Design the sequence.
């Protein structure tokens, strides 16, 4: 019955708010520059599309570069992918790379430059900072800092993962149980993140994303059951649910990391610090939620009991909207 209600609410959201964002609302642009021969690079530039229109973005370098081949463009449904070959007349190291037009948007752009030596430089450009300087020799600590930052940003912008963590916080009673639950989720998604990123396991992304959304809806329904006085496995042992679904969320993290890529020769460092970034972001979110709950409890007055059902129904509605949206893309 609760699932039926959530589906109906999700359908209402889809009709009333067709622009309701998916779990990753702002799709970033992506620029990949890979050295194939001395000073010769293959370039891939992906920009988000809305219908038949693409964001008016272009990649530019401060030094002299020349195209060796025409730019080939092909739409992929939600993005326009452009590829070409270029030669850096002046060394690419030390040049400023910029995404022209980014300052007029609300999206980010991920830039990845890989040299024939195996050195990889990655940076996220934003509307407020649409350019960056390509360093001469990216150090191991530079790589660690970049992937740590990317991990934090991914979890804090991954609204589906945050919504699942929020649902776990609501259904888990007691400090010790909460610690076990968050730890189980962390261990589980760390395992599958490593296995998938290193190529030991591969699962197609669309089904994973759909089941991740379904996992959120499942916990939302369990919260409603608890509010109604029914004790289920999710309420008695939330760490088991967190571990089981955490394995799926790890594949979701791995999908994001695969788009970024791992620098040859520094894969362990990049993987470790990306995962650390995810955990830091997760702990920041948990801390913020607990602080908010503590503040509400201090100032709480008598409120209608039906308000206790608002969070699970809101979480479940959003989750079911994502389920419908993601299944429709299969």
Sequence:
């Amino acid at each position: 019955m609760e699932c039926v209600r959530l589906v109906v609410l999700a359908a209402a959201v889809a009709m009333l708010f067709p622009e309701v964002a998916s779990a990753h609302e702002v799709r970033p642009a992506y620029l990949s520059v890979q050295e194939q021969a001395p000073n010769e690079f293959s370039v891939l530039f992906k920009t988000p599309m809305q219908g038949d229109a693409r964001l008016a973005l272009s990649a530019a370098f401060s030094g002299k570069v020349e195209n060796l081949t025409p730019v080939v463009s092909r739409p992929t449904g939600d993005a326009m992918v452009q590829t070409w070959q270029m030669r850096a007349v002046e060394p690419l190291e030390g040049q400023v790379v910029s995404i022209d037009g980014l300052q007029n948007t609300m999206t980010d752009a991920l830039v990845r430059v890989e040299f024939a030596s195996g050195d990889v430089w990655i940076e996220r450009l934003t509307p407020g900072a649409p350019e960056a300087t390509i360093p001469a020799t990216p150090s191991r600590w530079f790589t660690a800092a970049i992937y740590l930052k990317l991990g934090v940003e991914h979890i804090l912008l991954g609204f589906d993962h945050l919504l699942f963590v929020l649902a776990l916080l609501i259904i888990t009673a007691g400090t010790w149980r909460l610690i076990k639950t968050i730890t189980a989720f962390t261990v589980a998604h760390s395992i599958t993140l490593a296995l998938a990123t290193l190529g030991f396991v591969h699962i197609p992304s669309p089904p994973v994303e759909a089941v991740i959304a379904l996992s959120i809806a499942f916990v939302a329904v369990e919260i409603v059951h608890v509010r109604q006085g029914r004790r289920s496995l999710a309420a008695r042992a939330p760490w088991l649910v967190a571990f089981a679904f955490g394995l799926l969320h790890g594949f979701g993290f791995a999908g994001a990391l695969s788009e970024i890529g791992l620098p040859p020769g520094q894969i362990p460092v990049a993987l470790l610090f990306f995962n650390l970034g995810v955990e830091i972001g997760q702990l920041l979110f948990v801390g913020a939620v607990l602080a908010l709950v503590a503040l509400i409890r201090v100032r709480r007055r008598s409120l209608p009991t039906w308000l206790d059902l608002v969070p699970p129904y809101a979480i479940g509605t959003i989750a079911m909207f994502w389920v419908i949206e993601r299944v429709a893309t299969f």
